[in-house]
């Protein structure tokens, strides 16, 4: 299988045009997804219900299923859009701990992984916020 090199902007534009010409629903999907990205980037949950309604009425099975999933946990989605808080830092720590645990599996007792975790926890870290 041939792996394409880095896709450049004109190639992306040509690919999008080909998709629009070949598939009638492509334009609808592109519009709905672009609207969703703008809505999520704007940090306003007010138009979220309308966008979910548009997804459900699109007639596209995958988008309808996505909308049902978002609607099922709407309060959490709304909070994620409206607030500036992120759990990315916590997720990074969990990922780091799991990586250490996997790397040490079968090699040592608890003393060595504990020392690695505590040593790395003492290093200063930069503070990152969502906005």
Supply the key terms.
single chain; 131 residues; mainly alpha; 2 domains; 0% strand; elongated
Describe the structure in your own words.
The chain is an all-alpha fold and 131 residues long. The protein has two domains: 74 residues, no CATH class; 34 residues. It is built from seven helices and no strands. Helix 2 packs antiparallel against helix 3. The two termini are 40 Å apart.
**SS elements, strand count:** 0
Figure out the total of helices.
Answer: 7
Strand count, sense and barrel status of the largest sheet are: none
How much of the sequence is in beta strands?
under 5%
Secondary-structure element order, N to C: HHHHHHH
Structural class: mainly alpha
The span between the termini is 40 Å
Whole-number tally of structural domains: 2
Mean of residue pLDDT values: 81
- Determine the fraction of residues in helical runs and give it as a percent range: 55-70%
Which descriptor suits the 3D outline? elongated
- Uncertain regions spanning at least 5 consecutive residues: none
If you compute it from the alpha carbons, what radius of gyration comes out, rounded to the nearest whole angstrom?
Answer: 22 Å
What's the short version?
It comes from Deinococcus aetherius. This protein has 131 residues and is mostly helical.
Summarize the helices and strands and which ones pair or pack.
Blueprint: H1 9-22, H2 26-41, H3 48-56, H4 61-72, H5 74-82, H6 88-104, H7 111-121
